[in-house]
Structure prediction request, 60 residues.
Amino acid sequence: MFPPFVGCTDDSSYQRLRRRHQERKLQTLSFWRDGLERQLAAINAAISTLERQMGESADS
Prediction:
């Protein structure tokens, strides 16, 4: 596998670019995770509400 920044000859420059790439990737993955957590919380709330409503109607 090739390094992501093949054109860099200076090792310190390569390390800086690699670090910046990793930080950006971490930010992106964290953003996706946060969005999925919000969606999951909404789904869990909808399920809880539906289960409660079904329980209430079964008691009637």
Summary: The mean pLDDT is 90. The chain is about 80% helix and 0% strand.
